[in-house]
């Protein structure tokens, strides 16, 4: 009789698939249950950025481990990937001060970055408008993937390479110790389960999630038509507004000046949590965003005002051959205010794992790997 532990994963978004992969590498027999026919949530509604540069120092190593695992997946699956790196492009003096402060502290924290002059930004970033950049911060650790393609290929990769089984169109309605029940009334047993159901706080363990520091966060995004004649964006781009969004810059004294100026001059950006970034997909289109609305402020209807504000700020710094918008959408993820991971034991042998706070593509592989590695080390 096999002693191989059986692990159930509830949710086939990036967090669930990351845990499935980590459990399989640890020698578990893994079964994934997903209510839809494929991943349809936040995991496919993002920039496709593996973005280590944006992570706070205590999570940077896990982000780099995610990067290694993305590279492994790409090699073995043939998925699209571009190791583009990234450039934060800034136009204000206080933003340039933040970049200088971060670049000075970065080596001691493990980051490898390089300050760029305006001329260097314009030389290395075809997507930056000429004559407006004050400075830039180059990081080479970022990878661009296609989230729609990656989430479509990951299940086949896990099935073929690691024997992971999938139950699609199977909603799990109850999880008990050692047993789960689906909407059709079927019962499945397990040794361990991970509930990775994103921003669904109502179906499983609602009392735990209601008392948690998690809140839903809605973002709006856009995609241009494919750019003409094979035009290449170069590095993925972020603006000075993004300094307000990412934990790595919280160590910089000048960040408070940036936040105060934006709040005073452009309160509409704070109202909707707008910062602007750009990446290029495998078809040559530019993915643009994004915004942040939380909790009770979330509505099912998207706001044209948010799209217009994002485009206003994007056009200040960036320039693409064709700005025609082909797609508009929104996503909702679970925001955790104390880091990129919410993990709690709901029952013996049952863990809730969610709350990657918009960093799922960057952090999920590394966090799941770290969890299983730590546990194996204590056995």
From TrEMBL:
Instruction: Write the record's keywords in alphabetical order, separated by commas.
Output: Flavoprotein, Oxidoreductase
Q: Which Gene Ontology terms of cellular component type are present?
A: cytoplasm
Keyword tRNA-binding carried by entry: no
Checking InterPro entries in the record gives: FAD-dep_OxRdtase, FAD-dependent_OxRdtase_HpnW, FAD/NAD-bd_sf
One MF annotation (Gene Ontology) recorded for this entry: oxidoreductase activity
Tell me which residues make up the FAD dependent oxidoreductase domain: 7-369
**Pfam families in UniProt:** DAO
Cofactor entry = FAD
User: Per the similarity annotation, which family is this?
Assistant: Belongs to the DadA oxidoreductase family.
Q: What is this protein called?
A: TIGR03364 family FAD-dependent oxidoreductase
| Record lineage | Bacteria, Pseudomonadati, Verrucomicrobiota, Verrucomicrobiia, Verrucomicrobiales
């Amino acid at each position: 009789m096999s002693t191989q532990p059986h692990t159930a994963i509830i949710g086939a978004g990036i967090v669930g698939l990351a845990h499935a992969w980590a459990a399989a590498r640890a020698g578990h027999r893994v079964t994934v249950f997903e209510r839809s026919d494929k991943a349809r949530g936040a995991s496919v509604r993002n920039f496709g950025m593996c973005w280590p540069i944006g992570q706070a120092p205590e999570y940077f190593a896990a982000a780099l481990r995610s990067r290694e695992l993305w590279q492994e997946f790409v090699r073995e699956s043939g998925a699209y990937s571009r190791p583009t790196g990234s450039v934060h492009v800034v136009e204000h003096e206080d933003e340039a001060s933040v970049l200088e402060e971060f670049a000075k502290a970065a080596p001691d924290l493990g980051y490898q970055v390089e300050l760029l002059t305006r001329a260097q930004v314009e030389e290395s970033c075809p997507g930056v408008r000429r004559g407006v950049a004050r400075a830039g911060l180059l990081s080479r650790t970022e990878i661009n993937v296609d989230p729609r393609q990656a989430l479509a290929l990951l299940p086949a990769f896990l099935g073929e390479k690691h024997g992971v089984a999938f139950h699609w169109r199977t909603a799990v309605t109850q999880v008990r110790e050692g047993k789960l029940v689906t909407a059709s009334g079927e019962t499945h047993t397990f040794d361990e389960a991970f509930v990775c159901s994103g921003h669904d706080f109502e179906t499983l363990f609602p009392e735990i999630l209601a008392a948690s520091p998690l809140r839903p966060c809605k973002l709006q995004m856009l995609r241009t038509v494919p750019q003409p004649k094979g035009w290449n964006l170069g590095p993925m781009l972020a603006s000075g507004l993004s300094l307000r969004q990412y934990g790595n810059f919280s160590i910089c004294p000048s960040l408070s000046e940036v936040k105060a100026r934006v709040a005073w001059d452009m309160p509409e950006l704070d109202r909707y949590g707008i910062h602007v970034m750009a990446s290029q997909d495998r078809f040559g289109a530019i993915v643009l965003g994004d915004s942040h609305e939380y909790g009770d402020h979330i509505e099912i209807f998207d706001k044209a005002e948010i799209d217009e504000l994002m485009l206003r700020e994007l056009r200040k710094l960036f320039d693409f051959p064709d700005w025609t918008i082909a797609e508009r959408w929104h996503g909702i993820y679970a925001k955790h205010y104390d880091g990129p991971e919410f993990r709690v034991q709901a029952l013996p042998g049952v863990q809730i794992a969610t709350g990657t706070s918009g960093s799922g593509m960057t952090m999920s592989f590394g966090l799941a790997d770290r969890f299983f590695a730590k546990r194996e080390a204590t056995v």
